[in-house]
Amino acid sequence: MRSATVERRTAETQIRLSLNLDAASGGEISTGLGFLDHMLLALQRHGRLGLEVKATGDLAVDVHHLVEDVGIVLGMALRQALGEGRGIERYGEASVPMDETLVQVVLDLSGRSHLAFAPEELGIEGSAGGLNAYHLREFLRGLCNHAGLTLHLRLLAGREAHHVLEAAFKALARALYQATRLTRPDLPSTKEVL
C-alpha cells in the first residue's frame, strides 16, 4: 500500500500525520483548531484518503504556524507515499461549487514545486474559524514545496471565506484523488523520472 507516516517537531508545532492513498477514507483528525480539523476531514472524505493527523501548536500566538506546518507534513507524507510515482495518473483537476462559490484546482505531481494562488487578487472576504485566504496559501505552499507538486487554484465565483476555503479543500481533495490513481504500468513522464 502507498502510505507514509511523518512526524515533525519544532518549537512552534508538534505533528504526527499518517497518509494512505489506497485505504478507504477515515482516521482521527485532531489539531486543536476546529476549522482546520473540518477542512482536513473534507480532504480525507472527498480525496478518499486514509488520513490521520494529531497536531498541537502555539495557537495562543496565532494559527499560522500550525496551518503551515500541517501543510508541510502532508506534503512530506504525500511525497513518501507516492515513491517514484510509477503508475500514477499524475494530473488532476476538479471544480467544486459551494452555494455562490466556485473553486477550481488543477495540479501536477511533477516533482516540481509551484503554487499559483494570489489571495490579494481574489478579494476573499473575512475568515472562518480563525483561518483566512492567507492561511490557505501558506498551507498550500507547504504542501507544494514538500510534495514536489505544481498547483493552480482559481476562484471562479464567490468571496465569503468559509465557502471559499471549504470549496478549495474539497477541490484539492478530488484533484489529488484523480492524480494519485494507478492507471498505467510506467512513469507518466518522457523524462522517465518525476
From TrEMBL:
Coiled coil: none annotated. It comes from the Bacteria. Keywords: Amino-acid biosynthesis, Cytoplasm, Histidine biosynthesis, Lyase. It holds the Pfam family IGPD. InterPro entries: IGPD_sf, ImidazoleglycerolP_deHydtase, ImidazoleglycerP_deHydtase_CS, Ribosomal_Su5_D2-typ_SF. It catalyses: D-erythro-1-(imidazol-4-yl)glycerol 3-phosphate = 3-(imidazol-4-yl)-2-oxopropyl phosphate + H2O. PROSITE patterns: IGP_DEHYDRATASE_1, IGP_DEHYDRATASE_2. Transmembrane segments: none annotated. GO terms for molecular function: imidazoleglycerol-phosphate dehydratase activity. One of its GO terms (cellular component) is cytoplasm. The keyword Lipoprotein does not apply. Signal peptide: none annotated. Its EC number is 4.2.1.19. Pathway: Amino-acid biosynthesis; L-histidine biosynthesis; L-histidine from 5-phospho-alpha-D-ribose 1-diphosphate: step 6/9. One of its GO terms (biological process) is L-histidine biosynthetic process. It is found in: Cytoplasm. The keyword DNA damage does not apply. Belongs to the imidazoleglycerol-phosphate dehydratase family. NCBIfam families: PRK00951.2-1, PRK00951.2-4. This is Imidazoleglycerol-phosphate dehydratase. The gene is hisB.
